[in-house]
Amino acid sequence: MHYDWNLALLWEYRVAFADGLMLTMQLTVVTIVFGTVIGYVLGVLLSITARIMQPVKALIYLYMAIFGWLPLLVLMVWMYYFLPALLGIRMSGVMVAYIALSLNLSAFIADVIRGAIAEIPKSYVDAGKAIGMPFPLILRRIIFPEIVRISLPAMVALYINQFKWTTLASVLAVTELLHTANTIMIQTYRSLEAYTAIALIYLVVVGLGNLAYFQLQRMEFFKQRA
Amino acid sequence: MFGAHTVLKGFNLDIHDKQRVAICGPSGTGKSTFLRCLNLLEHIWHGAISFRGTRIIEAHRGKARVLVNENEHRCKVGMVFQEFNLWPNKTIIDNITEGPIYLKKQDRAAAIEKAKELCALVNVDPFARSANSRLQPKYPGQLSGGQRQRVALARALAMDPDVLLLDEITSALDPPLAAEILRYLKKINETFHIPLILVTHHVEFARSLATRLLFMKDGRVIVDAAADQIDQYYDHQDFKRYLQPMADDGG
After folding, report:
1. Domain that holds residue B25
2. What separation, in Å, do the N-terminal and C-terminal C-alpha atoms of chain B show?
3. CB B93 within 8 A of CB B84
4. Spacing of C-alpha A126 from chain mean position
5. pTM score > 0.95 for this model?
6. Residue in B41, B85, B88 nearest the CB of A226
7. What's the CATH code of the domain at B235?
8. How many Å lie between the alpha carbon of A119 and the closest alpha carbon of chain B?
9. Would you tell me how many other CB atoms lie within 10 Å of the CB of residue A11?
10. A219 in contact with B at a CB cutoff of 8 Å?
């Protein structure tokens, strides 16, 4: 089968692709920051064993069920179409994308952090206590670096997936990469060029992300030692 | 008390400066709990503990009141654990300097210098030479069990403690390594004049290190004697029963 590639088209729409990539990166970075902060707080709260925390933990698990179990697309559509009807809250598509992506990521990160904290041996904390470290210092100097080290592989996978999940925002008319390709396809009928271009962009960015991960793994700090 | 289980009962003990006190006894008799109570890692259920003439905790039927700043107290009470409890992802030097830098606010360079001196004292090299002859910091995983325990000792000493609490520190080591630790403990006690309180299963190990030896059973002190006079108590029923299996093993 023969197909005449129109590569000039890609150059013609370079600004649109760049803008789409820019918004995709913004969506990724901003939602990673918010999702990580919320997820860390929730994960730490889930790790507190005091009985008084039980109701709080039940609420966190409910939060994780709603925002983690719901398919992201359903969550986005629901927030965009039904929140205005139910609560009178009207948000732009891009705002819904920021919020839904952040909440969804935070639900998974909370679980990763809870698991990482559970993996830290109690003896590390005991050793800190025994020399007189107050708990905030133990948290900062002993527990937090361990959480970062233990959770790194899972976090990198979530962050790379987050970049890919941004494509779902296209259904809310957010002009990220996939939406850009859709628009170009409608205007030019050259779907193969448009989608191949964004596929290559995704491959390159995810490839760079993985490369950065391999470099991180080689750093002294991230080496796991027995 | 641990939950509903009473670990220590009617426990009265005065420990004086420069002493090397060893506490022996069967498992679950409350030896380690005693050390953890001294370091305020556990709180007593009833009674009081004084340290250097100051009451640090008093408790009445489960209501404990800590009378000092717990963390400041722990700074003065060095504790070494059975399983070393070193932080595996920190270098040997970082393990030793963590307390001095972040708690005692010592200058980093001075803390590192002191850590190197302590490493020399316990005969552990905190650096390895790489293939290109550069010095690389070592991590706990690169050391033997005996070396790790000596680093744990150095970490406790780096805080300039008033007393050293040693919780079964030779249990995870072979007899030659345990003997090595013994030599270093004597050296530390004689160099720094720090009293030692040692919890151990091994009566012979305790005898060769301690100036005073206590034998505990069911949370009570059964025997309390100078280490060189412990032979007189070998006829004590509980003590004899405890020593018998070791004698049968040729110990």
Report:
1. 20-86+162-248
2. 33
3. no
4. 34
5. no
6. B88
7. 3.40.50.300
8. 14
9. 8
10. no
Give the single-character DSSP code of A139. Answer: I
Mean pLDDT of the region B15-37: 83
Q: Long-range CB contacts (< 8 A, 24+ apart) of B224-229?
A: B224/B13, B227/B22
pLDDT (tens digit per residue) in B185-236: 888 888 888 889 999 887 888 888 888 888 888 777 888 888 888 777 777 7
Does residue B246 carry a pLDDT above 60? no
Regions of chain A with pLDDT less than 70 = 226
Query: Tokens for A117?
Result: 């904290």
Residue A137 forms contact with B (CB below 8 Å): yes
Q: Residue B129: its pLDDT value, please?
A: 84
Residue the block writes with tokens 């859709």: A182
Which pair of structure tokens corresponds to residue B131?
Answer: 């293939």
Kindly identify which residue of chain B lies nearest to residue A134, measuring between CA atoms.
Answer: B71
Residue B203 lies in a domain: yes
CB B185 within 8 A of CB B166: yes
Q: Among residues A31, A12, A32, A33, which one has the least CA distance to residue A180? A: A12
pLDDT for position A119: 93
Q: What is the mean pLDDT of residues B246-250?
A: 50
The complex scores an ipTM of 0.81
A134 chain-B contacts, CB cut-off 8 A: 71
Please list every residue in chain B whose beta carbon sits closer than 8 Å to the beta carbon of residue A127.
81, 85-87
A124, A131, A148, A221: best mutation site toward chain B, by most B Cβ within 10 Å?
A131
**Domain spans in chain A, listed from the N-terminal domain onward:** 7-222
With beta carbons less than 8 A apart as the criterion, state whether B168 and B82 touch: yes
pLDDT in tens, A93-140: 999 999 999 999 999 999 999 999 999 999 999 899 999 999 899 999
As a CATH number, domain A7-222 is 1.10.3720.10
Between the alpha carbon of residue B235 and those of residues B48, B213, B222, B239, B244, the distances in Å are 33, 16, 12, 7, 11
Give the pLDDT confidence score for residue B6 in this predicted structure: 55
Residue A91 contacts residue A99 (beta carbons within 8 Å): yes
